[in-house]
Amino acid sequence: MIEIRRMTADDVKDVSELEKIIFSTPWSEESFSRAIDNQDNVYLIAREDETGEIAGYCGIWMVAGEGQINNVAVSEKFRNAKIATKMLKMAMRMCQIHSCEDFTLEVRRSNAPAIRVYEKLGLKECGVRKDYYKNPKEDAIIMWRHPAKSI
Questions:
Q1: pTM for the full predicted model
Q2: CATH number for the domain harbouring residue 72
Q3: How far is it, in rounded angstroms, from Cα 139 to Cα 125?
Q4: pLDDT higher for 151 or 46?
């Protein structure tokens, strides 16, 4: 069974380790610590109950009524189990409680599985950031959801 809950300081080391495996330009433990300490952010973690193994995590920064979706990651072992979708739905609901109605993100153009998840959550492509990603260099698709649908 996978438990999804708010990320705490005790989770940051594990999250940072998974971040290093998944992303070519990973956030540091300090960056995650600052992010979870900010009351305008919602960061969640998914853990496997029996083993305590981290399955995934995500974060949303709330700024002026908009949610910037960041750091969505699922361990390869736990992919295709709708963990990203469940985490994002929960995080978006938590943001909506604070009057955050619109959501945005950037995603690698080549990341078709992630794009499908975001589309299912109501986000739509609305632009491109040329050469946004490094290592390897790639364009980012900008996606938005306005106004937020009921999740």
A1: 0.93
A2: 3.40.630.30
A3: 13
A4: 46
